[in-house]
Amino acid sequence: MKKKALGAVALAAAATLALSACSGGSSGGGGGDAAKGEISYWLWDANQLPAYKQCAEDFQKANPDITVKITQTGWDDYWSKITTGMASGTAPDVFTDHLAKYPDFLKTKQLVALDDAISKDKVDLSQYNEGLADLWVGQDGKRYGLPKDWDTVALFYNKKMATDAGLSPEQMGSLSWNPQDGGSYEKAIARLTVDKNGKRGDEPGFDKANVAVYGLGLPNSDAGGGQTQWSYLSATTGWTHTDKNPWGTHYNYDDKKFQDTIAWWASLVEKGYMPKLETTVGANMADNFAAGKSAINSNGSWMIGQYTGYKGIELGIAPTPTGVNGKRASMFNGLADSIWAGTKKKDAAIKWVEYLGSTACQDVVASKAVVFPAVKTSSDKAAEAFKAKNVDVTAFTQHVKDKSTFLFPITDNAAKIEGVMKPAMDAVIAGKSPAGSLTAANEQINAIFTK
Amino acid sequence: MTTLTKQPGPGLSASSGPRKSRKRGKPSAGFRGIGDLKIALLFIAPAMLGFLLFYLVPTVRGIYLSFTEYSILGDPEWIGTRNYERIAKDPLFWNALGVTSEYVVINIVLQTALALGLAILMHRVAKSTLIRGALLLPYLMANVIAALLWFWMLDYQIGIINQLIEWTGLPRVAFFGSEQWAIPTQALINTWRHMGYTALLIFAGLQAIPNSVYEAASIDGSKAVSTFWRITLPLLRPVLVLVLVVTVIGSFQVFDTVAVTTAGGPVNATRVLQYYIYQRAFNEQDFGYGSALAVILFLILALVAFIQMKFLRGNQSDLD
C-alpha cells in the first residue's frame, strides 16, 4: 500500500528529526582540522564525473595524506540529501553548490567562509571570468564558494529543417525580437513550424491543431527564473527579476515589461508554434528535438554534450536573438564548490576546494569538453576542446566576450518563490490565466520577504 | 506452557486438564496472572518499541513542531497556533483537500467495486491458484515502478497507449498533462495496483460465509442476483468495512505516484495533501507548516475512520 512507502518517508523524516536533535550545534565548525584523511565530495552532473575523478586523482598524488571520495547524485535528490545530511551530521565535506540554493544554507550558517584561507594561500580571484567570484559573497561580505564553471544560453536548431525553410545559418544567427510581434525571431519560429499536411506556420491554411514540427520547443513553464526559457528575452526589455542583484528583497513580476514578454511567449502555444504545456509533462524537450518534433530549442551551455550527441541530427547553434534594446542577453550562471560548516576535516576540505578552483583542475575539466570552467584561460581551452570535436560554441562564449550577460538572481527563499511561481506560470502557459495574473503571485512573493 | 512449571505437584501430565482449569479460579491465579502479563509484555515489547520509537515519538514531535517555525537546520521557534491560522487561509490547502477528495472518491469507488467483482469470480469461477495469484501481481510491484511504467505507457508523445488511441482515429490524450485527466489517471493507476490485494481480502471474507446459508437460499428459490444482495453483501459487511477503512486511509495518503509523475502540477491539479506537506516541509524547509498540515490530515483520517466504523457497524457481524 501507499502506506508502506509513506512509512519509509515518515521513517526517514523521523530519523532526520531524531538525529537533528543530537547535532543541533554542528555549525560551529572547528574540531580536528588536520589536512589529512578522507574527505567526501558531492556533485550532481554525471557528465562531469569523469573530469572530477581525474582531478581527484591528480590531487591525491600531490597530497598523499588526503583521499577524496566522490559521490554523484542526480539533481532531483541532491538538495534534499544535502539538507537532511546537514541536519543529521552526514553532509559531504565539500559539495557543488548552486546560486539558487546557497542563500538558504547561509541563513542557517551551514557553510564555511573561505576568506582567511584564500588570503593565506593567495588564491587569485581575478583569474575567473568577470563576475563569477562576486556571486559567492554573502550579505555578510564573506565568501562561501570558489567558482568552478559558468553557463550561458543559446539556440540549438535543426540545420536541415532551417535549410528546408529557407533560413541560412547567417539568418539564424541574426534574429531579432520584440514582445509586440516577436520580430524576425517569431517569423523564423513560424516558418519552422510544419503541420501534418506540410503547411508551414506562416502559410495560409496552417492547421495549428495538428502540428508535426513545432518551431520552438517547450521544456516546461518554468518557475520564476526563466533561465533558458524566456530570461534571454525579458532582459533585453530592461527588466530585472529583483530590485537589486545579488540579495534583492523585492521581485518585479508585476512589471508590464516582464508580463508582455511572458504573454508573447505563451502566445506561441496559442498560435501552434510551441507545444501545449500539457504535452510536456514527462517529455524531455531535447529528446523531442532529437526525434524531429521541434526545430529550435533555447537551452543552456551545459546541454551542448547532449545536443551534439544525437545521431542523425545536423545541429546548428545560434546566439539568442537581439532584443528591445538592440542587444543580446543571457543569464550568466556559475557553480562553485562550498565547504559544509560541519566538516571535521576543514583544512583538507579547503585544500581540495582550492584545487578544484585552480587552473590545474579546471584545465582537466576543459579538456573533457563538457562545461566551461570558471578560470578564463581554462574557458578558452574548453572552447578549443569543443572545436576539436567540431562543435562551434561561439554562440555561448560570445555573451561573455560582449558582456551581454546578466547574473542569476540571488535571493533568499528561492524554494518558496518557486512554490508560488510554478503553478502561476503553469496557468499562464496553459492559457488558463492572462499574464496579468502574475501580479498576484508577485504580491505573494514579496509578502514572504516583508514577513 | 510455562505456567505448568508453576503448578504445584510436578509431573502432572496433559490429562490433568480439568484440574488445571479448576485451579485457575483459586487464589494462586493472581500470581499466575502477573506471570502471564510479564510474558505478554515480553512478546509485545518489540512491536511496542517500534511503535513508540517510530510512530508515537515522531507523532508527538510532529504535533509539537506544528506549533513552531522550524527549518530543520536550527532550532524550532514556538509560534502558537499561527501555522493553523495560516492554513485556514491558505488556498493551496483547500485546493489540496479538494484534489485529494476527488482522488479518494474515484479510487475507492472503482477499487472496491472491481475488487468485489474479482473476489466473487475468484470464489465462484477462478479456482486456479495461478489465476488467483496473478491478480496479486500488480500489488507486488513497487509503487514508484508502477507509477513510472504507466507514466511512460500513457505519455503524450511516445506512450504506447496514445499510439493506440491515435490509430483508432481519436485525438491523443494528455493523461498526466491536462488538469482534468491528471487526477483520474493517477486514481486509476492505483486502482489497478491495489484491486487484486483488496479482492484477496474480500475473498477471504467470502470464504467465511458458511455454505449452509447459500443452500437454504437456493432451496427457498433465491436467484443469484438476489442472493448476492440479500445474503453475500450483508454477511460480508464487517470485512467490507475493514477493507474500506484501510483503503480509504491509504488512499488519502497518496504521495509517491504524484511525486514521481506530475509533482503537483499542472498548475495545482495534482497537489494532493501529502504532496503539499512534502513540498512545504522538505522543499521549502518549512517543517512547522508541514507538520501542522500533517496533523490536520491525521485528524481528517481519524474522523473518516470513526464515521465509517460507527455508521457501517464494522465491529458487528450478522452471522449467527
From TrEMBL, chain A:
<feature type="signal peptide">
    <location>
        <begin position="1"/>
        <end position="20"/>
    </location>
</feature>
<dbReference type="Pfam" id="PF01547">
    <property type="entry name" value="SBP_bac_1"/>
</dbReference>
<dbReference type="InterPro" id="IPR006059">
    <property type="entry name" value="SBP"/>
</dbReference>
<dbReference type="GO" id="GO:0015768">
    <property type="term" value="P:maltose transport"/>
</dbReference>
<protein>
    <submittedName>
        <fullName>Sugar ABC transporter substrate-binding protein</fullName>
    </submittedName>
</protein>
<dbReference type="GO" id="GO:1901982">
    <property type="term" value="F:maltose binding"/>
</dbReference>
<keyword id="KW-0732">Signal</keyword>
<dbReference type="GO" id="GO:0042956">
    <property type="term" value="P:maltodextrin transmembrane transport"/>
</dbReference>
<comment type="similarity">
    <text>Belongs to the bacterial solute-binding protein 1 family.</text>
</comment>
<dbReference type="GO" id="GO:0055052">
    <property type="term" value="C:ATP-binding cassette (ABC) transporter complex, substrate-binding subunit-containing"/>
</dbReference>
<keyword id="KW-0813">Transport</keyword>
UniProtKB/TrEMBL annotation, chain B:
<feature type="transmembrane region" description="Helical">
    <location>
        <begin position="287"/>
        <end position="307"/>
    </location>
</feature>
<comment type="similarity">
    <text>Belongs to the binding-protein-dependent transport system permease family.</text>
</comment>
<protein>
    <submittedName>
        <fullName>Sugar ABC transporter permease</fullName>
    </submittedName>
</protein>
<feature type="transmembrane region" description="Helical">
    <location>
        <begin position="39"/>
        <end position="57"/>
    </location>
</feature>
<feature type="domain" description="ABC transmembrane type-1">
    <location>
        <begin position="97"/>
        <end position="308"/>
    </location>
</feature>
<dbReference type="GO" id="GO:0055085">
    <property type="term" value="P:transmembrane transport"/>
</dbReference>
<dbReference type="InterPro" id="IPR035906">
    <property type="entry name" value="MetI-like_sf"/>
</dbReference>
<feature type="transmembrane region" description="Helical">
    <location>
        <begin position="195"/>
        <end position="214"/>
    </location>
</feature>
<feature type="region of interest" description="Disordered">
    <location>
        <begin position="1"/>
        <end position="29"/>
    </location>
</feature>
<feature type="transmembrane region" description="Helical">
    <location>
        <begin position="134"/>
        <end position="153"/>
    </location>
</feature>
<keyword id="KW-0812">Transmembrane</keyword>
<feature type="transmembrane region" description="Helical">
    <location>
        <begin position="235"/>
        <end position="255"/>
    </location>
</feature>
<dbReference type="GO" id="GO:0005886">
    <property type="term" value="C:plasma membrane"/>
</dbReference>
<keyword id="KW-1003">Cell membrane</keyword>
<keyword id="KW-1133">Transmembrane helix</keyword>
<dbReference type="InterPro" id="IPR051393">
    <property type="entry name" value="ABC_transporter_permease"/>
</dbReference>
<keyword id="KW-0472">Membrane</keyword>
<feature type="transmembrane region" description="Helical">
    <location>
        <begin position="103"/>
        <end position="122"/>
    </location>
</feature>
<dbReference type="InterPro" id="IPR000515">
    <property type="entry name" value="MetI-like"/>
</dbReference>
<keyword id="KW-0813">Transport</keyword>
<dbReference type="Pfam" id="PF00528">
    <property type="entry name" value="BPD_transp_1"/>
</dbReference>
